[in-house]
Every structure is written in C-alpha cells, then in structure tokens.
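Minutes, project check-in

Agenda point 3 was the complex the collaborators sent over. CS summarized: two entities, 219 residues total, and the question is how they sit relative to each other. Sequences were read into the notes so everyone works from the same version.
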Amino acid sequence: KNEVEQSPQNLTAQEGEFITINCSYSVGISALHWLQQHPGGGIVSLFMLSSGKKKHGRLIATINIQEKHSSLHITASHPRDSAVYICAVREGKLTFGTGTRLTIIP
Amino acid sequence: EAEVAQSPRYKITEKSQAVAFWCDPISGHATLYWYRQILGQGPELLVQFQDESVVDDSQLPKDRFSAERLKGVDSTLKIQPAELGDSAMYLCASAGGSAYEQYFGPGTRLTVT
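CS then shared the predicted structure for the full assembly.
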C-alpha cells in the first residue's frame, strides 16, 4: 500500500506570502492529484499531474517522479486560500494524504 | 456547470439506527465512488462502481454497510446499525470515461450519538 505523507500538517501565514506544501509517497504511481477542501467538506480538484509542472493562476504544482515527491505552491497568498490541501496518488485507486491545513491571515 | 449531488448534507442519528445517503453523479459518468473521511484524515475509499457493478468494495464493512447503484446512475449508501465510530464525512465522487479526474460532491456529515 502506498504511504502518502504531507508536510506541514498545519501552516499559518500572512497574506501575500509564498506558500509551499509538500507531498511524498512510497510506491511508483501513474498520477498525483492536489485537492482543496473548504470547511463544510466539499473537495475541488486543483491539479492532476504525472510529470513536470502545472500552473493555474496563483497555484503551481510540481512533481519529481524519481524522488517520489510533489509540491504545491501558492503565490501572493490570500485569506480565501485558507483550506485543507490534500495530496492523493493513483496506482489503480486513489490513496489520500491526511491534508495540510492552511490559514492565511489578512 | 454539472455537479455531483449528495443528500442529506447533515445527518444526526442514534447508534443502532439505520441511515442512508444518496448520491447523483455528473450525467454520463460511469464511475462512482463512495469515500469516508474521518475528521483530521484523508478520504478512504469504501466502494467503487463501474456502471451498476461493484469494482472495489474491499474496505467496505459489509456486516453493516451496503451500497447499490441499481440503474448505473444514482447510488445509495446504507449503514445498519450505525455505530459511534461511523461519525464521519461521507463523500461521493464520479468520473467519466477513462478520465482519472474525480469530481466530488459536497458530502454528508454523519454524527452518531
């Protein structure tokens, strides 16, 4: 079974700061997902990637397949970015990390 | 934009009672997933359907949980009898074709007292 670890578990930052959330996994995968979960529970898919880098607005996701590691970056962070960010890896089915709770203070 | 619908959004029930959750996936999505998310943890797959067939229910506690998707469209997840440890968020997701991307519903938050 793939072990998915995220760091940090909790992150509090000031508005405008550059944010990095990390995800490591133990077994080779076909794809990695970054998801955002707001209070209330709904989950939104941010990125799905199997190599390299993807960018959407202020969000950037990178993956290093050899090192089994991915990062999610948020530039110019804003209070509305406050949420739980979850990394999930696919090898057949999805295995989820426990999430990183991000709080952006105005 | 098409969304996955779930109901109810919140449910409080006493232990030993029966409870049911409903999910309506995005139209045309053949794959449907039920996940359980305990507070502070990531979602855990309970059951995966491909059309009306169960593909994976290896983590479904079959002594008390059941899931069906009779016509390959909407789905129901049932717990009978509910236990205190079943308190969690129950998430439904769907995916279309060979796409890996899953679309999640808003979830049902279950509290068992």
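Noted in discussion: The CA atoms of residues 20 and 47 of chain A lie 15 Å apart.
Follow-up: revisit at the next meeting once the mutant set is ready.
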